[in-house]
Amino acid sequence: MKYPIPTPHKITGLQLYQPEIVMLDNDIRLQIINLGIQDVSRIDIVIEGGSCDGKNIFISSLLAKTLQEGTATMTSAEIAEKLDYYGSWLSIRVSFHNTILSLYTINRHFDKVIEVLKEILVSPSFPEKELLNNKQTTINSLRNNNEKVGTLARYRFLSLFFGETHNWGRYPEAKDIEDISSEDLLQFHRRWFKPSNIKIILSGKVDSSMIVATNKIFGSIPQCGKPQDSNNDHPLVPFRHLTSFVNKTGALQSAIIMAQPTICRNHPDYIPLRILITAL
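-> structure tokens emitted (280 positions)
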């Protein structure tokens, strides 16, 4: 049975809200998106520096996993207990160029939980025992993923596209993870986790007291150094039209990746292209 083709319509009524910009006392840029109707909010700490910026792609991801495992004054259990007591939840994720700490909280406890967030941000201890546990978990995940045809296809594509010596083109190995030390995490933290590399986004039902509290807590972090740019993720090899095959013995499924280079993020058509990809 054939269904009629939907009639195209123009998109109307789309409104993109511009955030309010406030500079904290130490020149951290705070973007405020005040659109909430309930007394909850989210604060994102966006740090320049991600998987492109370590000696391998696992440095930043292990740092993200270990940030909550202890600070100069709190253990991981104390951090978890405080956040849970105040009804808050923290997630930490890593992209090519950024590390992002996102804290969801009830507004009446906002000033209390952002103190915990600041402690995690500026003075993590990266305890050795927890780091070892996270390394083993990451190794196990790597080994499991290496049995998946989709993962193997992705590795081959990244190697061909970026080049074998690029952070994202190298085939990840367990030894890459085993060789990471707490000192590696501390060095990454010292290089990137400073006010000159930080932006903050505060969203939800935001009131003036929350802005004051944000400036009091995060605006007091001493400024040091100049802003740094994350390493670029440009391929180290020219693009080539080719077909490549990866054989996986015993696999019951296949995976296909098709790709081609397009425009950069700073191109005026980049956002329309992303919307088109989502629509497709």
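The chain has a mean pLDDT of 92.
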